[in-house]
């Protein structure tokens, strides 16, 4: 299954983005995996990725679209989040430490902890792409 969504850079569309992702996946996955647990995991990752694009990459430019691409093969999920921002240099990223009470910087950490693989491609055809991959456990084997 493949699906694609073009959505404005506006946090008011977060519910639409979440419904698109979870609704698309639930059709194929709800009887094959612990859907309530997995949907919460995916909702958090998507909310972090989409809100980062809106708040940072497209800051104050809601006319720029965010493109989301989803591919599902068996229980393997590939989600891409495309933006038109300047991009983020991951070599400058420093994971937050709890004692620092840091305001930001947790998104990359959260996404990497909840997904099997996270990739960030800087400036591909004038856009950036965050690639999120996960293989969901089979309910029958858990």
Please characterize this protein's 3D structure:
This protein is of the alpha+beta class and 142 residues long. It has one domain (2-135): 2-Layer Sandwich (Heat Shock Protein 90), CATH 3.30.565. The protein is 34% helix and 29% strand. It has three helices and five strands. It has helices spanning 14-29, 35-57, 106-114; strands at 2-8, 65-73, 76-83, 117-124, 127-135. Strands 1-2-3-5-4 form a five-stranded antiparallel β-sheet. A hairpin with a 2-residue loop joins β2 (65-73) and β3. The longest helix has 23 residues, at 35-57. The protein starts with a strand and ends in a 7-residue tail after the last strand. The mean pLDDT is 90.
Look at the structure and name the CATH superfamily.
Histidine kinase-like ATPase, C-terminal domain
H/E element order: EHHEEHEE
The percent of residues in helical segments reads 25-40%
- Characterize the largest beta sheet: strand count, sense, and whether it forms a barrel: 5 strands, antiparallel
Side-by-side strand order of the widest sheet: 1-2-3-5-4
Beta-strand content? 25-35%
CATH class: Alpha Beta
Give me the Rg, rounded. 15 Å
Which architecture per CATH? 2-Layer Sandwich
Number of domains: 1
- What is the CATH fold-level name? Heat Shock Protein 90
| Low-confidence regions | none
State the separation between the terminal residues, measured CA to CA: 24 Å
Structure classification? alpha+beta
Shape label: globular
The chain-level mean pLDDT equals: 90
């Amino acid at each position: 299954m493949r699906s694609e969504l073009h959505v404005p850079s506006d946090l008011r569309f977060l519910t639409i983005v979440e419904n698109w992702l979870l609704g698309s996946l639930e059709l194929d996955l709800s009887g094959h995996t612990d859907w309530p647990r997995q949907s919460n995991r995916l909702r958090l990752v998507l909310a972090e990725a989409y809100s980062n694009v809106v708040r940072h990459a497209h800051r104050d430019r809601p006319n720029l679209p965010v493109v989301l691409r989803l591919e599902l093969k068996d229980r393997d999920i590939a989600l891409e989040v495309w933006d038109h921002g300047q991009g983020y240099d991951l070599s400058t990223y420093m994971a937050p430490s709890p004692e620092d009470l840091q305001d930001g910087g947790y998104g990359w950490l959260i996404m990497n902890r909840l997904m099997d693989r996270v990739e960030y491609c800087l400036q591909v055809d004038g856009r950036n792409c965050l690639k999120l991959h996960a293989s969901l456990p089979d309910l029958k084997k858990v």
